[in-house]
Design brief:
Number of domains: 1
Largest sheet: 4 strands, mixed
Order of helices and strands: EEEEEEHEEEHH
CATH superfamily: Nucleoside Triphosphate Pyrophosphohydrolase
Strand order of the largest sheet: 6-3-8-7
Oligomer: single chain
CATH topology: Nucleoside Triphosphate Pyrophosphohydrolase
Length: 161
């Protein structure tokens, strides 16, 4: 059973409230989700392909991430999820955004790494492939191949900057 802390819409922890994965989250209550965008020092971005058995199976995503376990800070969650899903160990992450959607409070991070590009590992049941793409390739990817609206927002931000 996976337990989550409960938060309000400003990411203030709600004392005495514990959420359980799979159970309905009350209206106005949020659980913490952290995503990490991985950019190599050469300017390429890491894309992970989702396991076909998962929601949005075989689609690509430009983040590693997931729900924070009870007691985890956003940074601790982001580092754990990044390590579990990619094998990349981040010593420093930079927070790049926050937003709420439904009952989730997303904290998004950027990891700039010089890891060996062939050292990325896949997480059984989560991912089946990875690739490094240039900024231009990422910008040109079809929305039908990328997971979530947040990925589309990220790409829009890349176009502007």
């Amino acid at each position: 059973m996976e337990l989550w802390d409960a938060y309000d819409n400003k990411l203030n922890k709600l004392d005495g409230v514990t959420l359980v994965r799979g159970q309905q989250i009350p209206q106005g209550v949020y659980h913490l989700v952290c995503d990490v965008i991985v950019r190599h020092t050469d300017g390429t971005y890491l894309l992970m392909q989702r396991d076909p058995r998962k929601h949005h199976g075989l689609m690509w995503e430009a983040t590693a991430g997931g729900s924070a376990l009870s007691g985890e800070t956003p940074l601790e969650c982001a580092k754990r999820e990044l390590r579990e899903e990619t094998g990349v160990v981040a010593h420093e992450l930079v927070e790049v955004g926050r937003e709420t959607s439904s009952n989730s409070y997303y904290v998004e991070f950027l990891c700039v790494t010089d890891c060996a590009k062939d050292s990325v590992t896949l997480q059984e049941g989560e991912t089946v492939a990875y690739k490094w793409v240039t900024r231009k390739q990422l910008l040109n990817m079809s929305a039908k191949r990328l997971v979530t609206q947040r990925m589309q927002q990220f790409i829009e931000e890349l176009k502007q900057g």
